[in-house]
Amino acid sequence: MDPNVVINELENLHVHPVLVRWIRAFLTNREQCVKIDSHPSPWMRVNGGLPQGTRLGPLLFAILINLLLKDWIGSLKFADDTTALEIVPRCSPSIMRLIVDEISNFSSSRGMELNPRKCKEMIINFLQYRIPCDQPMFVNGQRVERVRSFKLLGVYRSEDLTWKVHVDYILKKANARLFSLRLLKKAGLNNTDLITIYCSVIRSILEYASPVCADLPDYLCSHLESVQKRALKIIFPGLPYCQALKTSKLKILECRRDESCQKFINSIRTKA
Length: 272
Fold this sequence. Notes:
mainly alpha; two-stranded antiparallel ribbon; 10 helices; 12 strands; globular
């Protein structure tokens, strides 16, 4: 983050001059060193950026990229993650390459650079007769990888708009943590604490962003439910699944996804 660019953006937004001077003093002439045990390195002046964890960091970054969202509606922004969307009418050319060039130029003019290795291109096309899209996309002279699925804010989206890749991803993460539950059971941890650990460490993975993918096909629902069945089998070895649910006062995951989705929709209606 270039301090001069941030200051210029603040001045363009007509921020009070006193605040601008405070932020300028905070951003410029900063020094840092590295300390190992009791041996510090020489102090060196930092050319740009902000100390990690400061409250000003997210605010100044939002100010820095404010115009990107203001002037172009075909984008989704979350922190430093930008997703460009385009709906191409039948038999019409795509302008996504021009949009990517604009984003790249916008970033460069503000002292930031896009990382081509982290940029991905995915095409969603359900037309029976597909128009070939062989023209590659480039960022800073490097070709952008075209993928069949990619992770956006922790959720995998696929070119066929199904949830199989995402469910496989969270199943792998959740199943890996069942081993720790077995170790804690063998160590003699009581069932109440085991249920708390399951809900906090394992079920939270299975339910991440659940309103987005609430309407899952039956076979994916059963895959997710199998993780909870195995977890309760570890906690209550001699009980069938239905009885273990009653004893632990847990609900099946499908019901919880439905409730989460309904709660999310109600919150949107309330805000509207």
